[in-house]
Amino acid sequence: MKNVMGIINVSRRDELLKDLTSLRCIASVPFGGRYRLIDFVLSGMVNSGIYNVGVFTLNKYRSLMDHLGFGKEWDLNRKRDGLFILPPPIHYPFGYYRGDLQNFFSHIDYFHRSTQEYVIITGSNIVCNINFNEAFQAHQESGADITVLYKEIAEQEEKNFEQCRRIVTGDDGQVLDMEDKPGRLKSNKVLMEMFIMKKSLFIEIIENSNKMEYSNLIRDGLIQNVNRLNIFGFHYAGYLGIINSVKNFYKHSMDLLKREVWQELFYKPGLIYTKVKDEPPTKYLEQARVTNSLISNGCLIEGRVENSILSRGVKVHRGACITNSIVMQRNEIGKNARIENTILDKEALVSEGKELIGTPGQPLLMGKKSIT
Amino acid sequence: MIQKKCVAMLLAGGAGKRLGILTRDMAKPAVPFGGKYRIIDFTLSNCTNSGIYAAGVLTQYQPLILNSHIGTGIPWDLDRKNGGVSILPPYVQQGEKGKWYEGTANAIFQNIYFIERYNPEYVLVISGDHIYKMDYSLMLEYHEEKGADATIAVIEVPWGEANRFGIMNTGEDGSIIEFEEKPSKPKNNLASMGVYIFTWPVLKKYLYKDNDNPKSSSDFGKDIIPLMLKENSRLYAYPFRGYWKDVGTIESLWEANMDLLSDQPELDLYDRNWRIYSVNPNRPPHFMGPSAHVHHSMVNEGCMILGTIHHSVLFTGVYVGEGSEIKDSIIMSNVKIGSNVKIERAIIGEGAVIEDHCQIASDAKNPEIILLKGEITIPENSIVKSTIVSLRDLQVNREEQSLA
After folding, report:
1. Distance to chain A for B312, nearest Cα, Å
2. Are residues A249 and A359 in the same domain?
3. Nearest chain A Cα distance for residue B132, angstroms
4. Strands, DSSP E only, in B36-144?
């Protein structure tokens, strides 16, 4: 994979996750206790042997830059290649920004300078543990211009992928149709927003679209070329989550409490890396009662936790009870507080005896640093 | 090299013989502690938290694990252009045969050149095998204030135990009048913590003197300090309050781990202003199964717990099967424990596999702490009542049982 560079595309304006994305871009939304969404694709690239990764950002990227630093945790602090964070060169006023291709175009030198022949482009909100080698090999063998990764989903998973684009492929794997807005195609093949192509073709798409004032990679770069270019699909069989709503953020988070998902997503084929916080192991005190939960380091637990995910450094005081909830970093849950079906963003404080109750279908979302 | 005010020298070459099989393959400072650390993390973190960014780690005995743990010092922020951490093994000098470090003072003596590169005013000498959090910069201030040649950190120990330590008899101003190694009738209860600050030119002089004395054992406590006292150097005791523990034996190592489990432990690992840093193994949050029951315990990342854990410390990536009960034990990284296993008062070494229905607990008559060697597999239904170093021990264990 020495000959492949990775592009993580965060150049989107949409604030899909409401309060979770009011102060951060989607790539740096906390997920799975100690991770941020971007960790999954970024670790996948590194585990596949890709050592030149460009992260294209648009706005609200402070927390993302803080998280990534210079890429040390992903082994991307390199003299040659490594990690490149590429914010827009100018701040696009509202209405002026037309789409991700525009952002790629403004950093076209990065592509010219990189020595790799191929590029893998992915979104930043994809939860999976992937090794790109197989897909890359398939790309070379099929002789495709572009290989897109997709996943066939089971019927009961439909709800989690409501907002995702579908594709139709022929028997030989060729992509016959790709939808722009979800709903048109009756297909169980979900587009993962991961593409493999020659860098020269990618540059061509970027430069063409700039001339034509096109703006969107998937719509103008791919869908418009479905008939002109040879686009093949590659099926990814592992666990997949594409996080694009609070609802499916919650659903996919809860999936982690299934033992087999935990074992697969975090370990196979490689480990998922993230920023290290040097928290001590979590401590369970006398009154602690924790079942069916995912607990990160640095927590102090005196209360009850059930079917929940705790990020690093959460304090749960005596008598507090947390069920079916996601509690992010450094939250403090006061004595006898009750939290159900709730997503608590970072550094919030829930005072003694307080109740925060949502429903499984409509989890309650509490913003960062909120005090209740 | 830019001048450094103070250089830290960590003595990390000890074999730690009393730790038995735990130190068979690694030096004592590399022994795992507290669910995610190795013993040396405490002193290295103290250095960086105290603003001492130039450190030499003197290694000698079984250094592989220690060396790979320290690496270039990144976890402790000790990867620096100027300074940082350097590993200093014994080496061969021109025209001479190879020379091992023959004592703590000799180890420093052989690295005078390393210290001189920084041209420091002071040298901090510490051992990499104690568990404590200490701000060396405060001690350095004290040393400067007193205009001392050497300052020795001391801690009050219970009078009854004072005969196990090196005891400092001090004057009212804190000056050291007398030093007694393990006195049978202690006059004081201020024990040396093995933390020294020396004014470098003075120490250098004494290191040369010591080296010229063929009878010397070249040890700080036995030779250098007594010699300095005899020659009326300015020695001061720096009183330290807080948690400090020498984890030199299986019992003390076990106890120090258990100390962390009290509700308000004296050693606070959760203080964000004084982090203890270590190498991060990058494992996911630990998974508590539907039948898990964990209390009074510490659990690190990557574990999967389906059984009951009471008053124990679990390192990274431990698996505990359903129906298993673990009590008063230390389970090191990547240990796999099957179902319906009982473990009590044991230290289980890294990577050990304990199959279903095993019982690991010492006799009530003979309540020693059981030590299980790492990377060993204990087959189903085994009963283990004493320390296991190899599979042969297990057979012996079994034969004894069948005889009984």
Report:
1. 10
2. no
3. 15
4. 37-38, 54-58, 84-88, 122-127, 130-132
